[in-house]
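From the methods appendix. Each design record in this collection lists the tokenized structure first, followed by the designed amino acid sequence. Records were kept in a plain field format so they could be parsed without special tools. The example shown here is representative of the layout used throughout.

RECORD:
FOLD TOKENS (138 positions):
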């Protein structure tokens, strides 16, 4: 009986390899869910849904007088909440000014994460993050 304990059987080896493969797959799925574009869009949508907007904007980020509050000025971006959330990126973000549409495949994951972090910062602190990396409020 000692020989069985010293030399694992083929079934034990397959069980160990199968368990290792399962763990690797689960870790890969976890990392994919944490760092994928779709996960970033879901996190932004959840953050944006819970934010209390005070301003009203049209689809291009221009202030309007009527309608539901749906936008916020974040210094780097003017974020517009809607069925398809959008943001107008300002030139102070060290990139060219542009309108971003938060749909899969239309915007970089780094932009999605940056807007989410700025929206969270504004909700938490009541103020915007500075417009430039060395902005002293001037």
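DESIGN:
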């Amino acid at each position: 009986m000692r020989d069985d304990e010293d030399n694992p059987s083929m079934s034990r080896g397959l069980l160990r390899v199968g368990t290792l493969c399962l763990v690797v797959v689960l870790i890969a799925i976890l990392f994919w869910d944490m760092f994928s574009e779709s996960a970033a869009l879901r996190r932004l949508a959840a953050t944006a849904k819970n934010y209390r907007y005070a301003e009203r904007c049209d689809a291009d980020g221009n202030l309007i007088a009527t309608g539901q509050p749906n936008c916020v000025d974040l210094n780097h971006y003017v974020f517009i909440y809607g069925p398809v959330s959008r943001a107008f990126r300002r030139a102070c973000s060290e990139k060219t000014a542009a309108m971003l549409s938060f749909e899969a495949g239309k915007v970089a994951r780094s932009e999605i994460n940056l807007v989410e972090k700025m929206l969270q910062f504004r909700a938490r602190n009541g103020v915007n993050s500075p417009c430039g990396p060395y902005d002293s409020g001037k």
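APPENDIX NOTE: The longest strand covers residues 77-80.
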